[in-house]
Write a structure and sequence with these properties.
Number of helices: 10
Shape: globular
Structural class: alpha/beta
Order of helices and strands: HEHEHEHEEEEHEHEHEEEHHEH
Number of strands: 13
Helix content: 40-55%
Length: 276
């Protein structure tokens, strides 16, 4: 067979095996920011695998997990806790890649903060104080605060959900809350507003892409994983040009993710009745 015939056969085979893959990211940002930041990524991924990727919007973490459980989403960008919760109900959900931060680490941490001029110096002094959390299913929300408070032997009782990391920072800055739990990168971003960190978690496995292996076959999963992990935007200018318009969370590259990376979070989540 000629090279042209082989190429045409490959293209035809790819077309026949192409599918629509419904992708949803966690709703950490506005709809406009999500569309602007994820559509270039999905368009690029479509060229790599030959599939059509449809961006699915969700209202909040609960809506996202519900849609995945109902089979309305095939692939999702998740935080460790939403993945752990979903994994308890749907064993076919598997992690394929976890993303690097701008320093090249596949991990991140959560922090508990107070106002910079607050008299509160330790977690114990936050007992029975007003605590601002992000969302119920945010890893740096209830999950992080509960673990931190348990380590000090104090109850986590006077808490409320602000809805986002930026709102947690705002609530603490304005004195609406005495303390708050948020991702450390957001603390670094908003520290100038007059915030102080009194606790930082151990490194957590990075945000990830998980797929439903009952909806996407193993060959296609391998193709998606290979396409994403082959990029090295932190060291390769050509790859950096590819990812420059992607949302910050996924812009710096990724490495392969394994189920055991998230085993501890799954175990801890099972023992937290307020987030199951």
């Amino acid at each position: 067979m000629t090279k042209l015939a082989i190429a045409l056969m490959f293209i035809w085979f790819s077309i026949l095996n192409a599918q629509e893959i419904r992708f949803a990211p966690i709703p950490k940002e506005s709809v406009e920011t999500i569309e602007k930041g994820y559509k270039p990524f999905l368009n690029w991924l479509s060229k790599q695998t030959g599939d059509k990727y449809t961006l699915v919007m969700t209202l909040d973490y609960k809506d996202l997990t519900s849609k995945i459980e109902k089979g309305e989403i095939d692939m999702a960008y998740l935080g460790p806790l939403p993945y752990a919760i979903i994994k308890q109900h749907i064993n076919s959900i598997v992690p394929i890649v976890k993303f690097l931060d701008e320093s090249g680490k596949p991990t991140y941490t959560c922090s508990i903060i107070v106002r910079a001029n607050s008299n509160i110096k330790s977690l114990k002094e936050l007992e029975n104080k007003k605590i601002s959390l992000t969302q119920k299913y945010s890893t740096c929300g209830y999950y992080n605060a509960k673990i931190a408070f348990d380590q000090e032997g104090i109850p986590l009782s006077q808490y409320s959900f602000a809805g986002s990391h930026s709102k947690v920072a705002f609530n603490v800055t304005t004195g609406t809350s005495d303390g708050g739990s948020l991702q450390t990168s957001y603390y670094n971003k908003y520290q100038y507003l007059g915030l102080r960190k009194i606790y930082e978690s151990k490194p957590l496995p990075g945000f990830l892409i998980a797929v439903n292996k009952n909806k996407i076959d193993s060959n296609k999963i391998s193709a998606i994983k290979k396409a994403i992990t082959t990029l090295s935007p932190l060291t390769n200018p050509k790859d950096r040009e590819i990812t420059k318009d992607w949302i910050d969370n996924i812009r710096y590259g990724a490495v392969e993710a394994k189920e055991e990376d998230y085993a501890a979070i799954i175990h801890n989540a099972k023992n937290m009745s307020d987030i199951r």
